[in-house]
Amino acid sequence: MNETPEARLKRMGMRSWRRGTKEMDLILGPYADAHLAQMAEDRLTIYDQLLEENDQDLLPWVLGQAESPAYLSDLIGEIANFARVRLSRG
Fold first, then answer.
1. Torsion of CA 62, 68, 73, 76, to 10 degrees
2. Domain coordinates of the chain in residue numbers?
3. Calpha distance 9→89 (Å, rounded)
4. I need a labelling partner for 64 at 20 to 30 A (CA). Which of 1, 45, 55, 74 fits?
5. Residue 37 backbone dihedrals phi, psi, to 5 degrees
6. Which fold has domain 5-88?
7. Which of 13, 58, 55, 15 is nearest to 38 (CA)?
8. C-alpha to C-alpha distance for 41 and 47, rounded to whole angstroms
9. Helices (DSSP H) in 1-90: which residue ranges?
10. Would you say 57 and 76 are in contact if contact means Cβ atoms under 8 Å apart?
11. What residues contact 66, with CB distance under 8 A and at least 6 apart?
């Protein structure tokens, strides 16, 4: 079954806000709200793959405490920077 682009974005947005840990909800949810609608197809594919990762792996990657897989490194860096800027604004 093929997913419409609208359904895909909705699913990805929901998965960003409903992770498994509150920390990742608060990192990925706002990032998704701000970026998903404008993402190019190749970036959406990588973000969709990122959503399949465990929060126990994602959080250390985003916090810079562990190295992420190479295919996710640019996106993880972008998400980490977005979260840092957002948190610094309080």
1. -20
2. 5-88
3. 27
4. 45
5. -60, -25
6. DNA polymerase; domain 1 (1.10.150)
7. 13
8. 10
9. 5-17, 22-35, 41-50, 55-62, 73-88
10. no
11. 57, 60
Tell me the two tokens of residue 39: 């993402």
Q: Token pair for residue 46?
A: 């990588």
- Give residue-wise pLDDT tens across range 19-68: 989 999 999 999 999 999 999 999 999 999 999 999 999 999 999 999 99
Nearest to 81 by CA among 65, 63, 67: 63
Structure tokens at 78: 């972008």
Look up the pTM and report it: 0.92
Q: Is residue 6 classed exposed, middle or buried when 0-12, 13-18 and 19+ CB atoms within 10 A define those classes? A: exposed
Q: Which of 23, 45, 43, 24 is nearest to 35 (CA)?
A: 43
